[in-house]
Amino acid sequence: MNRTLPSTSNPYYSTGGGYSMPTYSRRSSFGFNISKPGRNLIILIVLGLLIGFVASFFYVDNIQVLLFLLQDNYLVYQGWVPPLVTSAIVAVPDSSGFFDVLFNGISVLFVDGLLRSAFTPKQYYLVFIFTAIVGNVLSLIAYGPGSAPLDTTISFGASGGIFGLLAGALSTDYAVNRRVNSSLLIWFVFVFIISTVGIGVDAYAHIGGTLAGLLAGYLIGRSRSRTSHY
Predict the structure, then answer these.
(1) CB of 171 within 8 A of CB of 225?
(2) Residue among 160, 143, 150, 152 at smallest CA distance from 195
(3) What residues have CB less than 8 Å from 44, skipping those under 6 apart?
(4) Number of other CB atoms surrounding residue 63 within 10 Å
(5) CB contact set of 140 (below 8 Å; sequence gap of 6+)
(6) CA 160 – CA 61 distance, rounded (Å)
């Protein structure tokens, strides 16, 4: 889940059919049938909280190293662009970061069955990265640069990429079957609204990831559909 909080209360702002590919899935020790990409993504999300914890102890020129890994809009506008990627994984080591990681990890766990049916392992990773970046860019443009570090929007969270994967699965299904899966659409809209409406949620990251996912999924589905005709 991606959030936005006022700087006076906290210096950090949180933003994370029809085809089956069982060859890269396995059943975890907890009984969940989860794919290798899904498992790796959950591990990476959890690892991001540990990275944030370690980075919070170090400083460069009196600026906490953690700020260089989160999306501090001021620093990004100054030319420090790596957070457009790293902020999708690295989390703040406090309660907001913990619940963000928990929510995103559980989300991947329960939607992985849908995602592995829509994407190859390579597509799974690439769609997540692409849509997370697009979500972060839209958030960056919408909130602007601010005037200084900590006096600007600072965001983190994997949910832009997760919504990108979900939207991509929806549009992939449409491109292949030439119809909208109404049940999937209703479910997606419900989850999107529940996850996006709230205080401090970075809706722009969610919207950007969703739009990018719809495009990526449609292109993947069209490519798969054309290949199946030969």
Answers:
(1) no
(2) 160
(3) 89
(4) 13
(5) 71, 73, 76, 77, 84
(6) 31
- Widest pairwise Cα distance in the chain: 61
Q: What pTM value is reported for the model?
A: 0.85
225: nearest Cα among 175, 169, 174: 175
Which has the closest alpha carbon to 164: 142, 137, 143, 183?
137
Burial group, residue 138, by CB count within 10 angstroms (0-12, 13-18, 19+): buried
Contact 220, 172 (CB under 8 A): yes
**Positive or negative torsion for Cα 216, 228, 112, 191:** positive
For residue 84, the cross-strand partners are: none
Rounded to whole angstroms, how far apart are CA atoms 212 and 171?
Answer: 11
69-119: pLDDT as tens digits = 999 999 999 999 999 999 999 999 999 899 999 999 999 998 898 899 899
Both tokens assigned to 82 = 């790596």
64 is written with which tokens?
């906490």
Which of 3.90.1150.10, 1.20.1540.10, 3.40.47.10, 3.40.50.300 would CATH assign to domain 22-228?
1.20.1540.10
